[in-house]
Specification:
Layout: E1 12-19, E2 32-39, E3 42-46, E4 50-53, E5 58-61, E6 67-71, E7 78-85, H1 101-104, E8 111-112, H2 117-135, H3 140-165, H4 175-186, H5 194-201, H6 205-216, H7 220-238, H8 243-249, H9 255-266, H10 270-280
Antiparallel strand pairs: 1-7, 2-5, 2-7, 3-4, 3-6, 5-8
Helix pairs in contact: 2-3, 4-5, 7-10
């Protein structure tokens, strides 16, 4: 199954993982994910790009982005801490919705190198958060949440530091945009009426479009299509489903509409994309 419906019993899940696989099918889910590499060299594999990670590196996976962590060498398994969480958890953090910026915009790098002080702080907090869970001393949940906030803050500060170095202004994100994004993530393969998003936002159409694009980098419709295209590319690459079936599975009621948006996104048709990926395998 290409999509992992990772429903959390709570809004936060922290695990220690060890894996020696050098090949594995990519997967995707609608949760936000942070991986902190602890031992050996890894390949952070995305659909069309791969990053080599060293111990101490941090990598964030965005919702519906096909991905997997692979060991760089079969005899040197990687060890990492995986932090999975629902975007709704930030409602418990003062101005926490701003901390989700790196997970929604493609302008922020998903790779935080170990050489960065931010990566070091994230690793320290992730290890302590995991230890709290393992020891389960009285009050461990509160302590773990404190470390989780520290992780989010440092991911956000890294993104802001990178933006400052490239001359970009700091991005302001309000809670209404996060609510709209979360709704989109939960209903991405269904019909999504932008008017429902505007109503959910509660501040009017102009404010919604302006603030959404400022935070995410694209309009609401472009964001919806971008997520659907990621799903479509993965299905085209890994299944034998017809283009029509994939279009409907991704939330499009018209094959013509699907083909049009796919070509806008990839500059080629879905069939051409499938043929190219098969030839490259």
């Amino acid at each position: 199954m290409f999509f992992h419906d990772l429903r959390l019993e709570q809004e936060l899940k922290i695990e220690m993982r060890i894996d020696g696989e050098v090949e594995h099918e990519l997967h995707m889910h609608d949760l936000l994910e942070i991986n902190v590499l602890l031992e050996n060299k890894a390949q952070f594999q995305l659909l069309n790009k791969s990053y080599t990670g060293e111990a101490g590196d941090v990598f964030i996976f965005r919702p519906y982005a096909p991905h997997y962590n692979l060991a760089d060498e079969a005899d040197k398994p990687i060890k990492w801490i995986m932090v999975l969480f629902s975007p709704s958890i930030v409602r418990l953090i003062p101005y926490g919705y701003r901390l989700l910026y790196p997970f929604y915009t493609e302008s922020a790098s998903p790779h935080i190198p170990a050489s960065s002080a931010f990566a070091h702080s994230i690793q320290t907090a992730a290890v302590k958060a995991y230890e709290e869970q393992e020891k389960q001393l009285p009050g461990w949940e509160a302590n773990q949440f404190m470390y989780f906030i520290d992780i989010l803050v440092n991911v956000f500060r890294y993104a802001m530091d990178a933006s400052a170095r490239t001359g970009d202004a700091e991005v302001e994100i309000d809670s209404g945009v996060v609510s709209a994004v979360e709704y989109i993530l939960r209903h991405i393969t269904e019909d999504i009426d932008v008017h429902d998003l505007i109503e959910l936002y509660g501040k009017g159409k102009t404010y919604f479009y302006t603030n959404f694009k400022h935070a995410v980098g694209v309009t609401p419709n472009q964001f919806i299509h971008r997520l659907r295209m990621q799903i479509a590319m993965y299905l085209l690459k890994t299944t034998n489903k017809s283009v029509t079936d994939i279009a409907f599975e991704c939330g499009y009621n018209s094959i013509h509409y699907f083909n049009k948006h796919f070509k806008q996104y990839r500059d080629i048709s879905p069939r051409e994309f499938r043929n190219q990926t098969k030839q490259a395998m």
